[in-house]
Amino acid sequence: IMRGINHAHAWYLKEDTTAIKAIAETGANTVRIVCSDGQQWTKDSEEMLETVIDLCIDNEMIAVVEVHDATGKDDISALRHVTNYWIEMKNALIGKEQYVILNIANEWAGSWDGALWRDGYVEAIPKLREAGIKNTLLVDAGGWAQYAKSIHDYGVDVFNSDPDKNTMFAVHMYGTAGKNKQTIENNLANVTNKGLCVIVGEFGYDHTDGDVDEEYIMEYCQKNGIGYLGWSWKGNSGGVEYLDIANAWD
Q: How many Å apart are CA 50 and CA 193, to the nearest integer?
């Protein structure tokens, strides 16, 4: 059961060693790593991916790797670019299935359009499997990952598109998906009631879209055996500096 923290690797490469060690010292068993396929930020090479993954393993944490460049985009071509990136980088993943979860794309599909979200992933997942990637796959919900109903409506279709039947889902809980007890319960229970595995892939205590009931997110997840990953260790900017969990990288 994931208990961990997000780390903004792509934007703070020089802080990886310090941050990952410090995250491990909190007792975290998982770290979610922000990566880039080059669409928006500097592309992570296979060597760079291997280095950061090995850092996680050395610190006895599972690495959840995700590409951040397609965030909020409703364009299937952006998701295709991410999919092709992971196929290009597959040697960083193959052989480390025990330690690395592939969270294909961070918050792909900004609109609350479940069918678009489904169509994108039903195309992407078989391609990843055909390339020989056997890692557990993690798929963020639609609507900047806050539209949990995309998973309620179409998650079974996405799961069934995986020939390995090894795909799980994430809801990100800010002021929309994590605003109160009823919303939190509905968003998570409606996934688990379908027999699907879900985590809270990101959450904070507040955000631009409203207050978050972070205490209840943790309480509900603890009671129901659901993973959660706080956003994020350090390095937030642009008015959301309050989302930093740590005061210093170490």
A: 36
The 10 Å Cβ neighbour count of residue 217 is: 25
The parts of the chain modelled with pLDDT lower than 50 are none
d(CA 151, CA 186): 12
pTM: 0.98
Asked if 134 and 86 count as a contact pair (C-beta separation under 8 A), the reply is no
CB 32 within 8 A of CB 2: no
| Residues with catalytic function | 107, 202
60: left (phi over 0), alpha (psi -120 to 50) or beta: left
Q: What are phi and psi of 165, to 5 degrees?
A: 50, 50
- pLDDT, one tens digit per residue, over 93-128 is 999 999 999 999 999 999 999 999 999 999 999 999
CA-nearest of 209, 82, 97, 220 to 140 is 82
Contact 160, 150 (CB under 8 A): no
Spatial contact of 200 and 221, defined as CB atoms under 8 Å apart: yes
Dmax over CA atoms of the chain, in Å, equals: 44
- Residue count of the chain, please give it: 250
Q: Which of 11, 2, 1 is nearest to 233 (CA)?
A: 11
In single-letter form, the type of residue at position 69 comes to: D
- For residue 64, give both structure tokens: 């959840």
